Amino acid sequence: MLNLERLRTLDALARHGSVSGAADGLHVTTSAVSQQMAKLEREVGQPLLARNGRGVRLTDAGRLLADHAARIISQVELAQADVEAQRGCAVGELRIGAFPTAMRGLLPQALAALRTAHPELRVRVREQEPEESMAAVVRGDLDLALAIDWHNKRMPVPAELTRTHLLDDTVDIAVPAGHRLADRTGSAAPSGISLAEFGEDDWISWNEGQFCHEWLVFTLRGTGIEPRIAHIAEEHHTQLAFVEAGLGVCVAPKLGRGPVPSGVRLLPVCDSVRRHVYAVWRADADRRPSIRAAVDSLQQAAAGLR
Asked: What is the β-pairing status of strands 228-232 and 202-205?
């Protein structure tokens, strides 16, 4: 009889395309993946992997079995969801992916409440950008993800996923204390400042290719500004440190912002720049009480931030 965990390993190899990718997706070592595949090859009596340069590829038998493995795992997950739903309890393991500001500003409160209400539910969290975490939910590597898009640029959600809105996160523009517009805060700019006024500024942005970087370029061009991206920094706190040093300006979301450096001023934007924060999960897992419990906790935590 074929071993389910070894079929999961084969499925991960087929989806990720490498031993290291499968190991990352399964949260195991590369040697563990190799050992599982060696055992599976002995079970079926023929090679499932072949050398391909420095990596590996699936043989014809490997691809055939991987197709079956994907269907078997999907059926097992549906069975688990049905049993969990029939029991009516949030138990077992739940894997969540979240972008950095949600990790700081939303998840801690939600997970604390979830642990109190459902002590038998084990939650594992991974920090990931929205595009990566949604793809991981589609693959089955995650059960739930927190994602974002923007008021003027929506992120496509795969058809296999269900989503629910959690909150709208407004953003400010962070400028150095000595910036020409730094005094336009509070009552000095009751309706906010226009993005078009930053045409002369250098920007500190996210990594190229990330959805938020693409949004910033798209939005600035929409106001007639050809963006001057001077520096790339992943974390908002790093971006604010660059702003304080006078190296440019950046977008400063309110969610998970934390203390702002003394040499930084925050300017509200009259264009009402905001991010939509939402949770996504596989539609075929909608009956799982653990999913529903996690979404309820996230909604309650989000309501406290509005």
From this structure: parallel
Longest dimension (CA), the chain: 76
Distance CA 278, CA 50 (A): 41
| Per-residue pLDDT tens digits for 131-153 | 889 888 887 889 999 999 998 88
The arithmetic mean of pLDDT across residues 9-26, rounded, is 85
Kindly give, in sequence order, each residue whose CB lies less than 8 Å from that of residue 247, ignoring residues fewer than 6 positions away: 202, 204, 230, 231
Is the entire prediction scored with pTM above 0.85?
Answer: no
- Judge residue 288's burial from the number of C-beta atoms within 10 Å of its C-beta, 0-12 exposed, 13-18 middle, 19 or more buried: buried
Q: Residue ranges of the alpha helices (H) in 17-59? A: 19-26, 30-44
Q: Could you report the per-residue pLDDT of 291-305, keeping only the tens digit for each?
A: 999 999 999 999 998
- CA-to-CA separations, 116 to 96, 122, 137, 217, in angstroms, rounded: 18, 12, 25, 42
Q: Cα Rg for the chain, rounded, in angstroms?
A: 23
- The number of residues making up the chain comes to 306
pLDDT band, residue 247 (cuts 50/70/90) = very high
